[in-house]
Write a structure and sequence with these properties.
33% helix, globular, 10 helices, 17 strands, alpha/beta, 4-stranded mixed β-sheet
């Protein structure tokens, strides 16, 4: 990202140790082998706030599966006489952006500008999703309307416990005609963007031709590429800056369990993926960052309580892309994203995390 150099504070070396302080703050060795006891913070507060401020106004192109999340909140006071299931008396209906659209709203919450390249149907859910994106200031011209229903996930909660979820979707791969329309949209979006996100929920949009063209355009422009994959086309993202699966997704793609204690396992996966960095998310165990060159870095979770993990991965993806666009190193971007995830899991459903909340989380861990 030579066009956006960052010299706000000196960048630390990528060799980490962990100290047993209250927040288990990660510190890095200063990089001088003659002074093994000399340490500098991985990310101090000034650097954090400077990166968050630099992110304001940056444009992120997000290509992937958008969906509408519907939450029905109610109460249960009896079992149905028709079947042994609870009867939920719905008191509130709430709608939220999900999938790639949730990445877009997290970019907006950071002060960035999102260009969401996704498909919606000619239906009320598509109209609702479009209106919600417009309210965020996202680019309305990059959505592609196609002849299939807008992906909708409806969750029934009583009062906060999820009772059931039902999905309305068509997850077949896009037709050639639909792919052509998406390609036109992503070319316009990437041409004006500072970072690219590829957000796959296996709903049929991220087929090989779209993936390859998006990566090609982003690399030609010299902008970072962050991938949040699912099972299909898992090994099709060669050239990405950060490839961010969770452990279940990685093991499903490999067809084998992953031993995190075997030092050669993850670098071998990185070579097979042909990406620059692998960021493996581990839920309550935090993350593992594996660079093509250098040492693996374990980043412990900063979450104080986990209320709902829905949307946490989207928050991480949004922060990774926006921080890289702002000039962060990959390590710094991962650490900031980890703080954001720690905030998000304390909220109900897919939620946004603001820059102020990330700074507050950093302060709370000091």
């Amino acid at each position: 990202l030579a066009s956006r150099p960052s010299s706000l504070v000196p960048r630390p070396s990528p060799l980490a140790v962990q100290l047993p302080c209250r927040a288990r703050r990660l510190l890095l060795l200063a990089g001088n082998p003659n002074f093994p006891g000399l340490m500098t913070p991985l990310l101090d507060r000034d650097r954090l706030t400077a990166l968050l401020e630099a992110a304001r106004g940056l444009r992120v192109a997000i290509v992937g599966d958008a969906m509408l999340d519907v939450y029905l909140h109610g109460e249960v006071d009896r079992i149905s006489p028709e079947a042994p299931v609870p009867v939920v008396r719905v008191r509130e209906r709430r709608m939220a952006l999900g999938g790639a659209a949730n990445v877009a709203q997290n970019v907006a919450a950071l002060g960035g500008r999102a260009a969401l390249v996704a498909t919606v149907g000619r239906d009320p859910a598509g109209e609702q999703l479009n209106a919600m994106l417009r309210s965020l200031g996202a680019d309305p011209g990059t959505l592609v309307t196609i002849a299939r229903p807008t992906t909708t996930k409806t969750r029934v909660l009583a009062p906060v416990q999820q009772v059931v979820r039902f999905d309305e979707e068509d997850d077949q791969n896009l037709s050639d005609e639909e792919c052509a329309a998406v390609l036109q949209s992503l070319e316009r979006a990437i041409a004006a963007s500072d970072a690219l996100v590829l957000e796959d929920y296996n709903k049929g949009l991220l087929v090989p031709s779209i993936i390859e063209r998006a990566v090609e355009l982003a690399r030609a422009r010299g902008i970072p590429i962050v991938v949040d994959p699912k099972f299909h086309n898992f090994f099709s993202y060669a050239g990405a800056t950060i490839f961010k699966p969770n452990r279940r997704e990685l093991e499903a793609a490999l067809g084998a369990s992953v031993n995190l204690d075997a030092t050669d396992t993850l670098p071998g996966v990185l070579e097979r993926l042909r990406v620059e960095h692998l960021l493996l998310t581990l839920g309550e165990r935090g993350m593992v960052l594996v660079p093509r060159h250098g040492e693996m870095l374990r980043i412990e979770t900063t979450a104080r309580e986990v209320f709902d993990v829905v949307g946490a991965g989207d928050t991480v993806t949004a922060y990774l892309a926006t921080m890289l666009a702002a000039g962060a190193t990959v390590t710094e971007a991962a650490v900031v994203a980890n703080y954001a995830a720690g905030v998000e899991v304390g909220k109900v459903g897919a939620a946004t995390v603001s820059a102020d909340e990330v700074v507050a989380a950093w302060d709370a861990s000091a």
